[in-house]
Every structure is written in C-alpha cells, then in structure tokens.
Amino acid sequence: MHLPGKRFAGFESTDQQGRPSLSVKADRSVSILRQRFAPSLTEFGQLSFSWRVDALPEGADLGEAEHADAAVRILLAFDGDRSKWSARNHRLSEMSRLMTGEELPYATLAYVWSNQGEPGSVIVNPRTDRIRKLVVESGAGQIGHWRDYRRDVRADFIKAFGEEPGPLVAVALMTDTDNTRSRLRAWYGPLTLGSR
To answer: Fewest C-beta atoms under 10 Å: which of 33, 79, 126, 144?
Structure first.
C-alpha cells in the first residue's frame, strides 16, 4: 500500500535464521503490506506473530506526530459505529478518503516495538484517538533477535479502546522511518490468527 508523498520500500520474501519471512529495507520510507478480509471476520481469537530488526529509528517517539516512526508494527483494522466519532475524526477520515481513496477504519489496534515505553502500555495516536498502539517490545535490548508473540486480540482491543471490537476488516505489516529519516532492516515471520 503506497501513501501519497511518502517514499516506499517493498517487502521481499526471504529466509532469516531458518525462518521464512518478509523483509523490508527501510530508508526514510513507509512500507505497508495489507490483507483485507471480505467478508470481515467476526470471530477471532489468538494472534501469533514474530519479528526481528537490526536497528530502531533514532529519535522515534510514537506519542509525537513528528517522530512517530516504528521499525515494526502489526496493524489490525476494525469496523464499528462511526456515529460515536468526534467531528475531528470525521474530518480526518474524509481527508484520508480524498488523499488515498479510503476512509479511516473505525478503529486500528497496532502492536509495536517502541523506542521507549513499558511493554503493555497503550499509546494514543497524536492525530486521532481511533488509532492506538500497544507496546509489546521496547528499547534496543533485543535488536538482532527474533521476538515471538501470542496475543488475545479481543482482550487487547478492550484494553486499548475500552469497548468490544467490531468486525476485523484488515491486517497489515508496517515499517516506517520517514519522520526520523532513518535506515534499518526489519523481518516479519509468519502471522496466524485463530478463531475463538
């Protein structure tokens, strides 16, 4: 998925330390690989994923719009009742539609490797509260190592948004280093989503 005005780095199929993976060489870029679900998924349970990075974007801070880069993210986009949205979120969604041809999802939960922040903490996107980031890895201590995760999607959504999740409409991988003008390489292992 290409974003207007953003440099794109593509994903490549590779084998990293014996694991099949998708790799991206980020260079002041935004890379998104998305899978939509049609029809959307109303039954989902555990999400398993893994990733590895060779660096973190220097100076990144997911709580600040000007520095909101992350070496790796897993994004889950959900549908829901947009009548609950603020006027600001409706304007942002319309702006997104005009720029990309797509409205914002009702809610997006992102699993992130953050430069700082405690694992388990939730970071609200500085531009819209309909995107919330759950820190599952923090700091440089595990750079160069595969990290494996198993998450309860419903429980994590409730923790981040304080409400039940609606239907799941898409999942995406995202590596972005455009704000910090960083270069790094990231690998994503197989991702599986089980039913409840």
So the answer is: 144
Check residue 5 and report its DSSP letter.
T
Residues 1 and 33 sit within 8 Å (Cβ to Cβ) = yes
CA 36 to chain centre: 14
What tokens appear for 25 in the block?
Answer: 């060489």
Q: CATH number of 11-193: 2.60.120, 3.30.70, 2.40.30, 1.20.120?
A: 2.60.120
Tell me how many degrees the CA angle 182-95-79 measures, rounded to the nearest 5: 90
H/E run at residue 78: strand 70-78
Q: List, as own/partner pairs, every contact residues 87-90 make where C-beta atoms lie below 8 angstroms and the sequence separation is at least 24, other chains included.
A: 88/128, 89/128, 89/129, 89/130
Mean pLDDT, rounded, of the chain: 93
Where do the structural domains in the chain lie, given as residue ranges?
11-193
pLDDT tens, residue by residue, 126-168: 889 999 999 999 999 999 999 999 999 999 999 999 999 999 9
Q: Six-digit token pair at 97? A: 């539609």
CB neighbours of 8 closer than 8 A, spacing ≥ 6? 2, 29, 30, 31
